[in-house]
Amino acid sequence: MPTPMEVYQLLPMTNCKKCGESTCMAFAVKLIRGEVGLEACTPLFEEDRYKDKLSKLQELFETVEGATETGLVIDTDKCTGCGNCVVACPVNVANDPHGTAVGRGPTNDRVILRVKDGVVVASNVHECRRFGKNRILCDLCIVTCPSGAIEFV
Amino acid sequence: MSTQVTATCPGCSCLCDDIEVVIEESEIREVGNACRKGASLFLNPDHPAYDLDAAIDEAIEILKNAKSPAIFGLDNTTIEAQRIAIKISEKLGCMIEDYSSIRYGDLLNFVVSSRIKTCTLDDVRDRADISIFWGSDAMSSQPRHLSRFSYFPRGEHKQKGWEFDRYAISIDIYRSPTAKVCREFLKVSPGQDPALMDEILGILSGKPPGSKELLKFSNEIKKADFGVIFAGSGLIHGLNRDMDKLIWFMEGLNEYGEFYLIPMVKGYNMRGFVEMMKRAQRQIEGSFLRALLDGGIDAALIVGADPMSDLPYSLSKKLLDIQTIVIDPRDTPTTEIADLVIHTGIAGVDNGGSAMRMDGVEFELVPCIKRDTPSDEAVLTRILEGL
Ligand code: SF4
Ligand code: SF4
Ligand code: SF4
Ligand code: SF4
Question: Which is one GO molecular function term here (chain B) (predicted)?
Fold first, then answer.
């Protein structure tokens, strides 16, 4: 992940507030956390002089191919669909106490990880504990996987 | 228009009953919750049509003409089919056997007759403090075992989560995928399992431990109110089939808490076959391999099994010398070499029936789509009638 300063220097640094933030620095921090999208800084896209900065920023925040917005990548060739990650994920447990929490399939759509056609698929990734304001370095889906199929990039 | 049904998976002895199947125009489009192994059964296409009547006639002919036929396999078929197979063996006066004695010696008999204390997987989920995978790589053979029952789920008396509530250990001769996800891995040299049992009970009764891992493990045993050994065929080999040692060890553990054992059977309905044989008052003799090797069998009816893959080649090559009839939904190395193959449907997908989970709990397998492929039960019934 880039530092706020690195991102700041690629922004227009005019503090014009068009993005809804009071400063470019505040915007940079939220950008890194994934709380806002690059497109909110409209000057970047509208003014030609920011062209190079824009392309660098896009490169920086371009999600790795196959990665979800939190950087969660699942190697479907390695995944055996065992469901360990599904049952161990604290968000799944909290959002689905009568399904994944007790080892069964999900009973609602609020889970992050579920198994479909024999391999894990992710949704609602914005709820992942590694993401957002109060993020922590959760690794429960990684340590419970027997095949090394889950990675965060 | 698509419909969704909940199905039970015959992929292994976990018999997961939470499989969500989406059906569109009489085809299965999507399978939720099943592991890769289970999903492949649901997503498998149907077999091309064949002349069932002719195949059944030929099977009857082969069995009638055989001097010493045998029935083998049966761990991957329904209870209903097993019952008919037992009847066929009575009619022919022939041997009938599965893999239970080959892989687990007398273990299944001891469990079924309650000489070894056992419990259900639901008890495990709700109560187990400690799960011991001994000579068993559940992650490969029963992929959802740990996530549904033995390690990760919350249960009635296990509400804090696996990191706090449970301890899982793998005891094996190599670091298996199961060992990778367990809290602890204890490596045992081949054949040293009895010595390890001595050592564990020794430490529990106050002897100095030989290693840090053993001390930790012993402390976890002392702390546990409810523990389970998930016994794989590796344990039985390691014990050189000495069941008395295992019974002695289980009794020893029970001095410190409630300890149970569940055999991690391969084949989704091995437990069912052992029960059905017991109910029919028949012994599983464990003499099929010997008879095969010695030329004591001239025809084999193989149901839901793949001995060409499972047995050492020195044994399986003997199948090439005898007449073989294979009843199986799958294409396997054994169907490759068979004289006659009768492809059947998969129970729980194409056909119905029932089966026993590894812990002896019975489940109904309800077909989720309609296909013409006959069930093992239907084919065996017609063979029985024709004999
Ligand atoms: S819109 Fe862009 S330039 Fe304006 S304050 Fe926000 S980040 Fe800075
Ligand atoms: S990192 Fe934690 S919260 Fe995020 S998907 Fe994995 S287990 Fe769930
Ligand atoms: S734990 Fe790993 S192998 Fe199991 S379902 Fe999750 S990603 Fe797949
Ligand atoms: S664990 Fe076994 S029964 Fe459950 S879905 Fe996988 S193969 Fe099927």
Answer: formylmethanofuran dehydrogenase activity
